């Protein structure tokens, strides 16, 4: 493991301990940003946030961060306001693991590969319509999305 990767994981582990204990509903978070974007950004800057909500979309290869990520969006068609975009980065997974999204974007699948690159196991991680709890580091409010990075599902499903 590279020193920078180890340091990033160490920082992530330290920050996870400081996440709020009670999950905030995605609608509450969206309302905060809708009412006062600057105040909400200042409140959450550098913080771990645990948020709950319905999965409305899943996309492979989101380029919001330097490393492409799988973006899981929490929202409903009726709003309110901004969506919560949860970025799951392959760099945060166990070695030889990856998150795969089929072309229809209906689910994210956690895959494990052997040392040659063959898929040796595959398990569902998250599906559209599913209610989930996610902890992630607030990155930014960008293009109408509340963006969390280095996300983990409650219960450690994406490890």
Ordered list of secondary-structure elements with their pairings:
Layout (H helix, E strand, L loop, with lengths): L2 H14 L7 E2 H10 L1 H8 L3 E15 L6 E6 L8 E7 L7 E4 L6 E7 L5 E9 L3 E12 L2 E9 L6
Structure notes:
- With 159 residues, the protein is an alpha+beta fold.
- It contains three helices and nine strands, in the order H-E-H-H-E-E-E-E-E-E-E-E.
- It has helices at 3-16, 26-35, 37-44, and strands spanning 24-25, 48-62, 69-74, 83-89, 97-100, 107-113, 119-127, 131-142, 145-153.
- The strands form two sheets. It has a five-stranded mixed beta barrel with strand order 2-3-4-9-8.
- The radius of gyration is 15 Å and the shape is globular.
- Strand-residue fraction? 35-45%
Number of helices: 3
Largest sheet: 5 strands, mixed, barrel
**What structural category do the secondary elements indicate?**
alpha+beta
- Mean of pLDDT: 84
Keywords:
159 residues, five-stranded mixed barrel, 9 strands, three-stranded antiparallel β-sheet, alpha+beta
Summarize the structure.
Helices cover 20% and strands 45% of the residues. It is of the alpha+beta class and 159 residues long.
């Amino acid at each position: 493991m590279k020193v920078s990767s180890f340091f990033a994981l160490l920082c992530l582990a330290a920050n996870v301990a400081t996440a709020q204990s009670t999950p905030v509903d995605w609608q509450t978070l969206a309302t905060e940003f809708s009412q006062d974007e600057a105040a909400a950004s200042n409140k959450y800057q550098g913080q771990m946030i645990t948020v709950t909500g319905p999965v409305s979309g899943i996309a492979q290869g989101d380029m919001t961060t330097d490393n492409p990520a799988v973006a899981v969006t929490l929202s409903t068609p009726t709003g309110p306001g901004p969506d919560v975009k949860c970025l799951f980065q392959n760099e945060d997974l166990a070695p030889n693991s990856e998150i795969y999204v089929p072309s229809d974007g209906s689910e994210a699948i956690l895959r494990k590969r052997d040392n040659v690159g063959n898929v040796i196991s595959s398990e569902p991680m998250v599906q559209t319509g599913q209610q989930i709890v996610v902890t992630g580091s607030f990155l930014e409010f960008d293009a109408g999305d509340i963006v969390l990075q280095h996300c983990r599902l409650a219960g450690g499903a994406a490890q």
